[in-house]
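Why should sequence recovery work at all? Because a backbone constrains its sequence more than one might expect. Tight turns favour small or flexible residues, buried strands favour hydrophobic ones, and helices have their own preferences. The token representation captures these environments compactly. In the example below, the structure is given first.
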């Protein structure tokens, strides 16, 4: 491979390509065409970065230096971990090509498994008919996405296509997933059925240390359970391709009218939460909640309380079910409209918004503004200030961002 040939088109967005990786080390080619860091945004990476400019021109700013650094072809710089910096300018008239080497002595993040007996809100997923426009929409919101992967199930020691594929915005706690159909399977049929109602949030996944135990508990509490699933998805590593593995406990399709609700256990956390995908231009850090719209909040509150195994609590017009990490919030459409300006797109009850903690609301708003998106300053039920954002139509649904 020649690093200066067959350059991807970076006119719409900067493009990063992983060339090699191994524990504690990652090498990327980055192609820019006029892109710069959003106003107010500073990189604060947990890895050291050595980067050389192969072609083009760029200008960097460091928080601890008064002068800007101009870079041309052949110039390089080493940026220590947590040294705050930003890209002030790249040449808009020709591609700027970077070769970046990220390295650290620490291991990849591996603290996503809850301890025994605890429950985490692990991730939420948008079901979409087309991956590319949905991924572009989520990137416009300031998220960095993982590459596309097709999912498989392990049945009788054979890999069987699940019929779905994903891209993810991995956060320091939890993640947001985009799912689309890739084959004609029952799982893909269910996904298309949900999309026919509306494009948007249709999946809530909770994690535990033992999905099999949760599977037994769900059956004992009256849910119609399906056989445990051994799900895999390939991940490119320095060894070649390795499988990220999950045990998933699902209930019968239609048991939860909001969509697919499941438990899972991660078996390969370092392959899922990988260095290089955990820092986002919008400052997103954690998935902290999921909002449900319902005409009768008591009914989904009872179901989700039984599913998660945690009590429901009502405070004013919002009913909450808190796990050890992450909270389900349930409210009537009128409250969601009046409090956040959010209008449910689907048949009720339905998922309407993910709640995301960010480093700084001002940085988030600058990031959105640069992408031509406009959020609304609102207050959560906790009275914390937040930004409500209606997501682009290709993605569907909404997000509530708060500082934390």
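From this structural description, the recovered sequence reads:
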């Amino acid at each position: 491979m020649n690093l200066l040939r067959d350059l991807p088109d970076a006119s719409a967005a900067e493009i990063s390509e992983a060339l090699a990786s191994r524990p504690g080390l990652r090498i990327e080619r980055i192609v820019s065409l006029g892109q710069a860091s959003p106003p107010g945004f500073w990189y604060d990476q947990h890895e050291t970065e050595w980067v050389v400019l192969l072609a083009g021109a760029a200008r960097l700013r460091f928080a601890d230096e008064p002068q800007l650094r101009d870079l041309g072809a052949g110039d390089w710089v080493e940026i220590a971990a947590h040294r705050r910096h930003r890209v002030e300018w790249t040449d808009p008239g020709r591609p700027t090509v970077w070769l970046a080497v990220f390295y650290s002595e620490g291991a990849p993040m591996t603290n996503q498994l809850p301890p025994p007996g605890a429950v985490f809100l692990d991730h939420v997923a948008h079901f979409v008919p087309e991956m590319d426009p949905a991924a572009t929409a989520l990137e416009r919101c300031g998220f960095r996405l993982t590459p596309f992967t097709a999912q498989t199930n392990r049945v009788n020691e054979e890999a069987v296509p699940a019929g779905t594929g994903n891209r993810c915005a991995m956060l320091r706690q939890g993640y947001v997933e985009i799912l689309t159909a890739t084959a004609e399977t029952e799982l893909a049929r269910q996904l298309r059925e949900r999309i026919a109602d509306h494009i948007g949030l249709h999946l809530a996944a909770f994690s535990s240390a033992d999905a099999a135990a949760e599977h037994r508990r769900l059956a004992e509490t009256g849910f119609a359970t399906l056989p445990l699933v051994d799900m895999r998805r390939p991940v490119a590593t320095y060894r070649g391709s390795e499988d990220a593995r999950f045990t998933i406990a699902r209930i019968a399709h239609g048991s939860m009218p909001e969509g697919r609700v499941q438990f899972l256990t991660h078996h390969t956390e370092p392959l899922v939460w990988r260095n290089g995908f955990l820092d986002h231009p919008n400052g997103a850090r954690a998935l902290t909640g999921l909002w449900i719209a319902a005409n009768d909040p008591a009914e989904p509150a009872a179901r989700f309380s039984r599913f998660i195994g945690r009590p429901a609590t009502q405070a004013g017009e919002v009913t909450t079910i808190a796990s050890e990490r992450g909270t389900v919030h349930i409210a009537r459409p009128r409250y969601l409209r009046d409090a956040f300006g959010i209008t449910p797109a689907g048949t009720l009850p339905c998922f309407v918004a993910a709640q995301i903690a960010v480093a700084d609301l001002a940085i988030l708003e600058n990031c959105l503004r640069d992408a031509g998106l406009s959020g609304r300053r609102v207050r959560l039920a906790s009275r914390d200030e937040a930004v409500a954002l209606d997501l682009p139509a290709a993605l569907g649904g909404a997000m509530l961002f708060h500082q934390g």
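A few observations help interpret the result. The chain has three domains: 15-103, 120-272, 284-403.
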